[in-house]
Design brief:
- The protein has about 250 residues and is α/β, with parallel strands linked by helices.
- It has two domains: about 160 residues, Alpha/beta knot, CATH 3.40.1280; about 80 residues, tRNA(m1g37)methyltransferase, domain 2 (Trp Operon Repressor, Chain A), CATH 1.10.1270.
- It is built from nine helices and nine strands.
- The protein is elongated.
- The chain starts with a strand and ends with a helix.
Length: about 250
């Protein structure tokens, strides 16, 4: 996968891209990230990327020309043809909330172009005529699209085949089944009087699996009941779910 990031702060990405999953994905040749400075696509001596809003109001709005010219450069001046095989993504609080299903959809693409806005937003013509997707990482406001872009890249990179050591482990993680992950423990078996649950030391893998499903469902019910869809549960999870519901009602 290739990812082009259009931003006025390319240096914000350099350290995160050198660590963890993103480093591994690049070293394996499975991910290529190109940082593009939006100011390189301006034509005035001040390299201006923003201006005052038409109609008045506070703050500054990012100009359309640099974004269009940057994407034209990436797409070799064939934006419409490029859109048929790639995604041009605007990171914005107004976008679709980033969920695992959307991450999987993005991971199927061979090329992503991420537009990082700043200030009071981006000229509406960018949204109307340039992008294919709008993505938000949550119902809150951050200073720009750079950190959301990193969140999206990290989430997508994990799903690129061959990036993770165990291609199956990612399917067992939180949100793959729309359930929160079960509690995890490691050595020592006892620390400051706090012991690891005996079931995890028993070696009975069937019982351990049942315990993990129970804890996963219970944690989801307590912390994120909005994720649970009873109709979407497999029979084994549904049986445990009914048991938890019954015990909570007693």
């Amino acid at each position: 996968m290739k990812v082009d990031i259009i931003t006025i702060f390319p240096s914000m990405f350099k350290s995160p891209l050198e660590h963890g999953t993103l480093r591994i994905a690049q070293e394996k040749g499975l991910l290529k990230v190109c940082l593009r400075d939006l100011r390189d696509y301006t034509h005035d001596k001040h390299r201006q990327v923003d201006d005052t809003p038409y109609g008045g109001g506070s703050g500054m709005v990012m100009k359309p020309e640099p974004f269009f010219e940057a994407v034209e450069d990436i797409s070799q001046k064939d934006i419409e043809g490029f859109k048929k095989k790639a995604s041009i993504v605007l990171l914005t609080p107004q976008g679709e909330s980033l969920q695992q299903a959307k991450v999987k959809e993005m991971a199927m693409k061979s090329h992503l172009v991420l537009l990082c806005g700043r200030y009071e937003g981006i000229d509406e013509r960018v949204r109307e005529h340039l992008i294919t997707d709008e993505i938000s990482i949550g119902d809150y406001v951050v200073a720009g699209g750079e950190l959301p872009a990193l969140v999206l890249i990290e989430a997508v990179a994990r799903l690129i085949p061959g990036v993770l050591g165990d291609d199956y482990s990612k399917e067992e993680e939180t949100f793959s089944l729309k359930l929160l992950e079960y509690p995890q423990y490691t050595r020592p078996a006892e620390y400051r009087g706090h012991k690891v649950p005996e079931i995890l030391l028993s070696g009975n893998h069937a019982k351990i699996e049942e315990w993990r499903k129970y804890k996963s469902l219970k944690r989801t019910l307590m912390n994120r009941p909005d994720l649970l869809d009873e109709k979407g549960l497999t029979p084994d999870y549904l049986e445990i779910y009914k048991e938890i519901k019954k015990s909570s009602e007693q």
